[in-house]
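Z., the sequence and structure:
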Amino acid sequence: MARPVRMLGNALPVLLVLMLTQSTASGQEKRPAYEPISALYQYLQENEKLEVAVRKKDREVIRNHAWNLWAGMMQPLSANDNSWPIWFSWQTTHQAFAQDAAPVPQMKTPRRIPSKANLLAAEIAKGKAVNVNTPQPQYPVPDDVIKAYPDGVKKNDDGSYSVRDGDYFVSNGDILIAVESLSQEAFDDIRNRKLYLQSTLQDKLEAGEKMIELPREYVSTKLMYWPVKADGVTPLPVWTENFPDFYTGYAGYELWNSVVAVDPTGQEEGAWTEVEYLYGVKTNEGADIPPQRKRANVVSIERFYHHKVTDEDWLMFTEADKAILNASSFWLYNEAFAPGDYIVTVASHINTKEIDSWTLQSVWWSRTPDLGPYAQNRPQLAEAKGPWDHYLMTDAYIDTPDAQGKLEKAVNPYIEGVTHPIATSCRNCHVRGGIGSTGYQTAQCSGLLSPLTPESACFDGALLTDYTWIIPDRAK
C-alpha cells in the first residue's frame, strides 16, 4: 500500500519560517571552513610510490591508496554523530563556474545526459563502435516541486521543467542527489585562470595549446546520495551484476532485480518486506512506468554513510537544493522531503592529481561488501570513522592495456549504469576531457576500453583538460 503524501516543505515551525525570510546569507556563505583530506589517509604522501605501482601494475599498493582516499574523504567535520563529511566544507562546481557579474549558469538539459555523451552519430554508425548514449528514462519534475520551489526550477524552451543546481547539491535529473565538490586548490585554479569561461578555452584552442595542466592538489569528487524518509523503510535498488559485460543497452537502477529497504531505526534488520517505488517516471519514449513493487530485505541505515537533515540544514539550503531533494523523494516514494529525513551515500567518484596520470577510484554501497574482486586489498583503518568498509570499489589507475589490448573495466553501476554500457572505464572516459576534436566517443576515438593517453593521435587538434570533464562541460 502506498504511504500517504506529506505536506510539501511548509511544515516548518513559524519561528523557522521567520528566520528563513530574515536570513540574507547564501548557503555558500554559511559553508564551514575548508577541511582537506587528512594526510592520515595517505593523500599527497606517496606520489612517487604510486607512480611506480602504476608502472608495475601493483594493485595492492594502488587499492590500498584508493581505499584510504575514500575513507579520508568521508570523515566527519566534527565529532557529532550526525556530522556532514568533510566534502560539506568544499565548494562545488556550481560556485566554481559562476559567471562574473551574472547569474549562475543553469543546465539546459538534466545532468543525467552530460555533454560528453553527445555522439557524432553519423560517423559512429559507419564503424563498429558501441553507442554510449543509452536510452534513459524521463524524469519530469513533479508539479508539487514546481509549485513549492519556483525559484529552484527552470522552464525549458519546450515547456518542460528542469531543477536548477543548488549551493550544495547539483541536479542529476533523476532520483540520485549529486554533489560535485572541489578541493580549494582546484576551485582557486578554475577561478584564477578563468577556466569557467568558454572564451578562455576557445582562446587556448585557437592558440594551438594541447593541454590545460591542472595543479597537483586538484581533487574532484562526485558523491551520490539517496533520500530516506524518517518513518518506515525506504527502497533502494542494489547492484548484483545482473547484466553481462557485453550488454550495451540501458542498465540503470530502475531495471535492477535486487532491492533493499533502508530502516532508520535499525530495529528490523534482516526482515523482509514489500516495497513500492518509482513514481511519475516515463520510458525514454514517453510511456508511463508503473510503480515497481518488490520484496526487499531490510537493512539498517547504520550500514551507510548517512546524514539526518536538520532544521538548520534546511534553512541553509537554497530553493534549488530543496527542489533537488524533493524531486528525488517524490520520484522515489511519492512524498515530500523535509527536515528529519535522511540522505545516504550510495556511490562516489574521487579523482586526484597526485600522479600525472591521475588517481581514479569509485565506490558503491553493497550488502555483501566483503565478497568479490571489488572488495580486495581493503586495509585496516582503525582511525577511520563510519561504515567506509560497507562499500565496494573499482580503480582505474593503470593506463597500459591487458593481454587483449584493452583497459580493465572500471565502472560505477549507480553513476555510469544510467549513461554508459557496462563494459567501460573511468580512465577511458576522463582522458578524453577537452574541447575540439575530442568527445566521449568519436569516430577517431571510439573504443570504450581503448588504452588512450593524452598523446594518442585521435586527440590531434584538441585542447585536453587534464582528465577532467567538468571544465568543458560547465564553462559558459
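Residues 1-26, 101-128 have pLDDT under 50 and may be disordered. Residues 14-113+136-192+220-398+411-424 form one domain.

Let me know what you think.
H.
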